[in-house]
Hints:
By secondary structure, the chain is an alpha/beta fold.
Amino acid sequence: MLNQKAIIDAFARLGSKLNSTDEALQQMVTKTYVANNWLTQENYWLALGHWQRELVTDKLLSFVDRYTFTKTPRRVGVIMAGNIPLVGFHDLLCVILSGHIAVIKPSSDDKYVMLLLIHWLAELEPKLADRMEVVERVNDIDAVIATGSNNSFRYFEHYFRDKPSLLRKNRKSMAILDGSETEGDLSLLGDDVFQYFGLGCRNVSFIYLPAKMNVTTILDAFMKYQELANHNKYANNYTYHRALLLMNKEQHLDTGFALPKERENLHAPLACIHYAYYQNEEQLDTFIDANSSDIQCIVGNYSKVQTIPYGKTQRPDLQDFADGIDAMKFLSSL
């Protein structure tokens, strides 16, 4: 009988394998970039480095401590997104750590490394081979965890209407500054905005500034990401949205790789940044309340809501569940 301790040991040993010295992993990272230029090798190693730091025994033991390990495994569909590297790995981890069987539909945009990690897990703990099934179409399941676009969400909602489900759609993140930020804070905020090209739901796309703060202060700190203009796909988005802004005669700024625009709107197009000035806390509270279902996380300095430190959006802890929904609690209830 497979126990949780053996599963934790397998994931911890998997974590120790996630380094650039492994030839098979190198090949899959390269193959991923060839298939999908958004998933650059640099960004992939950034994601793998994060998981290497998270997949250690102490962290895994602490993560599962509050939950029940099931004695009656259910077949749980895991439908993965592919907007940033390994974005579906946390769901796989949760399903297996809960004692269930993962019926995995990898994203076609990011499947090669995921398939290798699944293969390695089965090698590290042979009994896990019966707890992971890779499929082209998710059928014959008892529950499902699915992540996708807003259109996909509506499809998932209908298709899995009779199953216990944890479904996710598009979200974005915001930052609230209070003017006390150091140069280091603003540099880390640049990571929150631009890591993985800003494609993740945890990437900051809207920034609230105090009235006394000049937006150029943060833009100067963001210039370390100016090389994004050399990435063909990102540059195409930048050029396209720049042309739209110019044709529509919309006032905006231009850093040469990003297009900041004063607009009180959470969702900024790729290569764009929305920002606005707040006058008081009531304005902040009103915006947060109105957009609560679309906000993934809030970065910065505001004591009235839960925030995360600068530079942490793409380095979530194991217990930082997407959409704030406790996947382990959901799985424990099946």
